[in-house]
Amino acid sequence: MKFYIETYGCQMNVADSELVAGILKNNNYKITDDYQQADLILINTCAVRENAEQRVFGRIGLFTHQKQINKNLVVGLIGCVAQRLKDKLLNDFKTIDFVAGPDTYRRLPDLIEKVKQGERPLDVILSKQENYDDLEPYYYDKNKITGFVSITRGCDNMCAFCIVPFTRGRERSRSPENILSEIQTMKKDGFKEITLLGQNVDKYNWNDGKMKFANLLEKVAVEFPELRIRFATSYPQDMTDDVLKVIAKYKNVCKYIHLPVQAGSNAVLERMKRGYTREWYLNRIEAIKRIIPECSISTDIIAGFCGETEENHKQTIDLMRQVEFDYAYMFKYSVRPNTFAARNLADDVPEDVKSRRLKEIIDLQNNLSYQSNKNDVGKIFEVLVEEISKKNDKQVFGRNSQNKVIIFNGDESLKGTCVNVKVTGFTQATLFGEIC
Length: 436
Ligand code: SF4
Fold this sequence. Notes:
By secondary structure, the chain is of the alpha/beta class. 36% of the residues lie in helices and 22% in strands.
């Protein structure tokens, strides 16, 4: 039986799809990258933003057509949207044969079996323990140079706007033994860079706090000196100097931190239930710049959260100027059902005001990114080559330790190698260089 899997949303979902692929492979399924060849189609969904959800509903239409061609085709919806909408999906979309939440992947073969017997099963039980610790993912992406390893699942933070605690459940950490063993396998498979993943990696906790994230990061850095190590996502409240010192100490730990701020005003941060203040956040930024001077920093920003005033918005702009982020993911606030904000706060910033504030944030970030890249001209970086450039097959692209994309002349033979590249040009999004 052949299966096809389509993944939406974040890196966590990519790692989950690899986990699902591993489970199915062990049950004699073969993967295909052509849905028209598949007997089983899985859509791994993301509920964090409304537009990602809408895209998934669009794809279901396509697979409805495919089901008319292949009468035996099984279509399953898995992941966060499955968790959020549960049986509504089975009621609204006759194409969908089963629905499985993020903690039920071990039972997928049983669910598929039930479909074959004429049922339309729903399995969305969240678990306090399930961390898929002992399961081996299948890295089906042909690139196999950069890959993900989950170290925690779920989140206990309950930020007011966020749906993740409702779709992915409570925080759980994986054992260091299984994390290291998974990285070992990836190394044997030829991976050159791994990203340790968790909704909040700083809350990694094994053996009653005897191993925290800083300890795990150091262990991985020491045991795999030939691999590049990244991680995502950090949380301002929980990111300690210990973690920063490990990043500074080991060359193979990349000098890049994604530290979501979301807003620059204390009033909004409090309504968001983020658990830190503007001053706290700026203190963490100061620590990063002091301990790891060459570190690049990116962030997430939400424009127009509930009750945001013009003055609150100006404080976000002001904070961005102070920090000088290298990159940012920027969004207009949109209500996600069942969250604290949806239940308790009025979504009272008019749409045109949200759009205007978002534009101001994006315009400023474009300038900051431009300036950040301009500052790199003339510098030499070690770049891990990932792929041939899509626009020019005589060029390759890779990333430096700071997670910036660099494009330069090269060919297929460079893929997976690290080369020193001198930056000779730039745009706001990309650096250009030459091997030196
Ligand atoms: S830290 Fe906050 S925003 Fe991030 S996943 Fe947890 S609840 Fe959501």
